[in-house]
Design brief:
Elements (H helix, E strand, L loop, with lengths): L5 E2 L27 H22 L6 E5 H14 L3 E6 L6 H9 L3 E4 L2 H8 L8 E3 L6 H10 L3 E4 L2 H10 L4 E5 L7 E3 L12 H10 L3 E6 L4 E3 L2 H20 L6 E3 L14 H15 L7 E4 L3 H4 L3 E13 L8 E6 L8 H5 L6 E3 L10 H16 L9 E6 L8 E8 L7 E4 L20 E5 L16 H15 L1
Length: 480
């Protein structure tokens, strides 16, 4: 497989190399629900420090700092709050090879929507049993690829899809995608996927006639759902389909509760809120004694916080006042809607921007400069220091398209060409859908190494040896 451009930091701490042959023998650490919160400040400090060091070393192009630990911490939090639900990471959210590797060696499974996504995961040594081919409308050639690779669990929501699967992958095991209320989500799904409850009896009958095995039900409450009760209501609706199947003589044993989980907690909604709404509903309808396996497809929840994007101000000019806006400075940066900020269009995102404090001068020596950068980063991470007055401005991308506006109305201190800005929480639905329009390259990536050796949490999962090797090679390079 083609790996991304990766760069390591000189100041990365040394790490223990991974031993792929021993991964499956390791026991998991105790669950720590507060782990992610406890790591937030130290990780922010390290990220800021590394951005400053990159600028000090002469960076001019946009770049990401990728914190692999963030994904691990989110996975640990998931297991603490929803221990009975196995996460299948939605690869479409961010298919970064090192991120996939980190999740793989920590025991996550994968939600894939295409041949390329399945191939990327299989190339890491992840067994086919840890993949759900969750696209409800699949290309026939991709269905045959799944059959050839042994990926059996897949999804359908129509009679035509059932017949396609029967023709190209008769040994597949199916989840019927159920339409649920997603009206309280940022990005709705029911307009495209999911069968209404009234169609389920006919789909179950068609699957039986075609000799297909129906394992269970899947649903999706929409991407960026902000109503915990929507998840519980969807579980209730899925339980009704299980009853329908049972009445027809079919015993199903898998429930897929989909995605839509938030990438960062806010005052209005947290992952703990959603888990608290889900646990009673799942326990009522699908207790462990039912024998139903519970899975989910988190994407942004696992990786949104893993990427921080640094961009350079490459242009500035004054915009006159209009009927809608006052006179203000227009800032042009070297990433935009055709690159990482496609999330503004496709994902309804409103990325928050911050000014990157300047790196310390290197005249006093590299170690002194690093120490000074660390002090500045700590102050910035803590929100300390005297804040410059913020004034109205707009932020634009680098392409020649007038659509390429990241924020028409923002507030920042007065900036100059050459200053740096950064955006947190840029790990979900950003670079994954970016392009090279106008010849603008996507940002490079610089990875923070893992704090400790990855440990597969579930002892029954096979270790992903290819993923371990990839991480081992990267971490060895970082330690040099």
């Amino acid at each position: 497989m083609i790996l991304p451009s990766t760069k390591s930091f000189d100041s990365s701490p040394s790490v223990n190399p991974l031993n792929a042959n021993q991964l499956h023998k390791l026991q998991p650490p105790p669950s720590q629900p507060q782990h992610a919160a406890a790591q937030a400040v130290p990780n922010a400090k390290r990220i800021l420090q590394q951005m400053q060091l990159q600028v000090q070393r002469g960076a001019e192009e946009p770049f990401y700092v990728v914190d692999l630990n963030s994904a691990v911490e989110r996975l640990q939090l998931w297991r603490a709050l929803l221990p009975d639900v196995q996460p299948f990471y939605a690869v479409k959210c961010n298919p970064d090879a090192l991120l996939l590797s980190t999740l793989a060696v920590h025991g996550a499974s994968f939600d894939c929507a295409s041949r390329a996504e399945m191939q990327a995961v299989l190339d890491l040594g992840v067994p086919a049993s840890r993949i759900v081919y969750a696209n409800p409308c699949k290309q026939p050639s991709h269905v045959r690829f799944a059959r050839e690779q042994g990926v059996r669990l897949t999804v359908a929501d129509s009679e035509a899809e059932l017949r396609k699967v029967a023709e190209h992958h008769p040994g597949a095991e199916l989840l019927l995608r159920l339409a649920v209320d997603d009206s309280q989500a940022t990005c709705v799904m029911s307009c495209k996927y999911g069968a209404p409850p009234a169609e389920m009896p006919a789909l179950l009958a068609t699957a039986t006639q075609l000799g297909l095995t129906v394992r269970g039900v899947s649903f999706h409450v929409g991407s960026g759902c902000f109503a915990p009760g929507a998840y519980a209501a969807a579980v209730d609706r899925a339980a009704e389909v299980f009853e329908l199947a049972r009445a027809a003589g079919l015993e199903m044993d898998v429930l897929d509760i989909g995605g839509g989980f938030p990438g960062r907690d806010t005052a209005a909604l947290s992952f703990a809120d959603i888990a608290a709404a889900l646990r009673p509903s799942l326990a009522r309808h699908f207790p462990p004694s039912s024998g139903v396996r519970l899975i989910a497809e988190p994407g942004r929840y696992l990786v949104a916080q893993s990427h921080t994007l640094a961009v350079n101000v490459i242009g500035k000019k004054r915009a006159p006042s209009t009927a809608d806006l006052p006179a203000h400075d227009m800032y042009f940066i070297n990433d935009g809607l055709y690159g990482s900020f496609n999330c503004v269009l496709y994902d309804h995102a409103q990325p928050g921007v911050r000014v990157l404090p300047p790196a310390a001068p290197a005249a006093a020596g590299a170690k002194a400069a690093e120490a000074a950068a660390a002090d500045e980063a700590e102050a910035a991470a803590a929100g300390g220091g005297e804040a410059a007055a913020e004034v109205p401005c707009s932020i634009w991308g680098p392409t020649c398209d007038g659509l390429d506006c990241i924020a028409k109305e923002a507030r920042l201190p007065e900036l100059q060409v050459g200053d740096w800005l950064y955006y947190d929480d840029m790990g979900a639905y950003t670079a994954a859908a970016g392009s090279n329009f106008n010849g603008m390259p996507l940002p490079d990536k610089h990875y923070l190494p893992l704090h400790s050796m990855p440990v597969p949490i579930c002892s029954h999962l096979q270790p992903a040896a290819g993923a371990a090797t990839l991480l081992n090679n990267h971490l060895a390079a970082a330690a040099r």
